[in-house]
Write a structure and sequence with these properties.
The chain is α/β, with parallel strands linked by helices. The chain is built from 7 helices and 11 strands. The N and C termini lie far apart (59 Å). S-adenosylmethionine (SAM) binds next to helix 1 and helix 4.
C-alpha cells in the first residue's frame, strides 16, 4: 500500500487540494435538492434580491440562490474551489459573480450593498482569532444594508467531544471512501479528510476553531447585527446545544 501523506495545511491549500473531490464527497446533486426549501424560505421571508455567499466553496448555495432569482456574488479564499463554482454556475445555467477574498477582510474589498450575507457550510471555523471574527462581521455589516440579514452556519461544537478522535462521517461514493474526522489539537480541532481509492490513501488536515453560539452572537452584536435567532440547522428547528447537529444563526443589520 502507498504511504499515507498528511500535513496540516492552510485553508486555501487544504481546499485547493480537496476541490476536485468536493462535489462527489458532499453529493452536490442531493444537496441542491435537500437545501432548496431553506433558500426558498430565506428569499421569500427576507425579500432577497442580492446576496453575497462567503466561503462559497464549489458554489452550491450561490447556485441555489441564483436559481431563485437572487443576484449573487460568491467569495472564497481557494482559487480551485472558485474555479469549480464557476463551472457549476454554467452547468446549472445561472450567473454568479466570483471573487477571491479572505472572509476576514472581504468587507474591505467588496463594494455595493447586499440584502444578505450567507456564510454556511462551516466556513467560519477557519478563522481562529476573535479579532478575525470581529473583522469579518464588521466587514459583513459594511456591505449588508440596514435591515438586511446575515446567515451563518457551523457545526454545533457543544455536541462534539473535544477530548478524543471522532469520526464525523464515512461514505462511499464513485469508487472512493471519504472519511471526515476530528482530533483535539490544543484549543483547536484538527479536521482531517481521508480519501481511499483502491490501494491509495490521501489524508489532509486543517485546524478548526470550535466557536460557541455565545461567541458568535456576541461578535455579531459587537459588529451591528441584532435580534439573532438560533436554529439547529436548515430545517429551522430551534437550536438545542445538547442535540442539534448544526448551529444556524440569522441576524439583522442595525445602525450602531
Ligand atoms: C467546508 S467548505 C464550505 C463550502 C460551501 N459553503 C458549502 O457549504 O459547500 C468551506 C469553504 O470556506 C473557504 N474558506 C476557508 N477559509 C476561508 C477564508 N479565510 N476566507 C474565505 N474563504 C474561506 C474554503 O476555501 C471552502 O471553500
Amino acid at each position: 500500500m502507498e504511504p499515507t501523506t498528511e500535513t496540516l495545511r492552510s485553508p486555501a491549500a487544504f481546499f485547493d487540494a480537496l476541490a476536485g473531490d468536493y462535489d462527489v464527497m458532499t453529493d452536490i446533486g442531493a444537496r441542491l435538492v435537500r437545501e432548496r426549501p431553506f433558500f426558498h424560505v430565506l428569499v421569500d421571508r427576507y425579500d432577497l434580491r442580492t446576496a453575497i455567499d462567503v466561503g462559497t466553496g464549489t458554489g452550491v448555495h450561490a447556485v441555489l440562490m441564483a436559481q431563485l432569482g437572487v443576484r449573487v456574488t460568491a467569495v472564497d479564499i481557494s482559487e480551485e474551489m472558485l474555479r469549480i463554482a464557476r463551472l457549476n454556475a454554467s452547468r446549472y445555467h445561472v450567473r454568479v459573480r466570483t471573487l477571491r477574498a479572505d472572509v476576514a477582510s472581504v468587507g474591505e474589498t467588496v463594494s455595493g450593498l447586499f440584502d444578505a450575507a450567507v456564510c454556511l457550510g462551516n466556513t467560519l471555523v477557519h478563522l481562529h482569532r476573535t479579532e478575525d471574527l470581529d473583522r469579518a462581521f464588521t466587514g459583513f455589516r459594511r456591505f449588508v444594508q440596514r435591515n438586511g440579514v446575515v446567515v451563518i452556519q457551523i457545526l454545533n461544537y457543544a455536541a462534539i467531544p473535544a477530548d478524543r478522535e471522532v469520526i464525523l462521517s464515512s461514505r462511499e461514493r464513485e469508487g472512493a471512501v471519504f472519511e471526515r474526522s476530528y482530533r483535539p489539537n490544543g484549543a483547536m480541532l484538527e479536521f482531517r479528510t481521508t480519501i481511499r481509492r483502491g490501494m491509495r490513501t490521501e489524508q489532509r488536515s486543517v485546524l478548526h476553531r470550535p466557536w460557541t453560539s455565545n461567541e458568535l452572537v456576541e461578535a455579531l452584536d459587537r459588529s451591528g447585527f441584532r435580534s439573532t435567532a438560533l436554529f439547529g440547522g436548515i430545517d429551522l428547528k430551534p437550536f438545542d446545544a445538547s442535540v442539534s447537529s448544526d448551529l444556524l444563526l440569522i441576524s439583522t443589520a442595525v445602525n450602531l
